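Customer ticket, subject: "Can you confirm the structure for CorA-like Mg2+ transporter protein?"

Message body: Hello, I'm evaluating your service for our small team and ran a test protein. I'd like someone to confirm that this is what the system normally returns, since I don't have a reference to compare against.
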Amino acid sequence: MKYYCVLWIPTVFHKKPLRKPDVTIIKNVNISDIDNIPHNISVDLDQDENIIIKSDSPDSHSILLKRIDYSNNGLFLYEYDIEDKKENRALIGDDFPFAIYHIVKEFYHTHEHHGEDEDTHLAAYTNKIRPDIKALNNEALIHYLRNYEKKFVAYLSQIQNAYAGLLSRKKESNKRYKLATDSHEAFSDFCCKVRGEELYYNSLNKSKYNTLCKSGLGNDSEEESQLSKIAFNIENALANIKYIEEKAHNEFGFDNAKISFNIAWLAFYIGAGLGLISIALGAIPFFK
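Agent reply: Thanks for trying us out. I re-ran your input and got the following:
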């Protein structure tokens, strides 16, 4: 039976879309969900960047995912055949395994703006009918935008809870306030990671193929209404995250700002002092 999958490789909208993969590397992973019963497979790319998946079972069966199209927003379209054999369905099945999708991304993607575990939160798109990844508002593109709606809404919930925890700890003793200040640094780091994730999301959101998943559009149909809601939920989550981050900075960031200010002045004085010493020693031919 023939299947199609669209794997999105996170890319930054304003940069060269993807790096050239190293096809000499073979990556290995255990895709078993059962402890102490591993199911090890290897994943590699051939010269045409097709994906080859091999199992470590005695019969050494394998599946070829042939790349048949791609777009500059990071969507890669593959086709593959799965025979009605138990071992083949264990490799792919009706749902594309997260572990294999994650490995494929590793060939192209360096996690420049987010942590390695962030990619595992995205589910691959599969279908028995070939999708057109260069069609306006194609189903694969919308699938990943829906994934991001879930991610950003979840981020907002985490940040709201973290901020509430910071405020609660601040109300306690001075010792606990120091703990809250330390926690604020971790809080700021998490907010920064969310903004990094937004960079990848923009390659989908601002793609020329996305014309309907925009907030504020007229709802001429049920589909447009649903897509508009996705965009609104994402924008609303990001706006709330930014607002909470600014509140946290105002509440806890004064000491950090003061330290940064003092360090800047210290660097100025050190630089000025070194400059005077260099002039005095003749290292810099300042007067001629």
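A couple of notes from the result: The chain has two domains: 2-127, 139-252. The radius of gyration is 25 Å. Feel free to reply with more questions.
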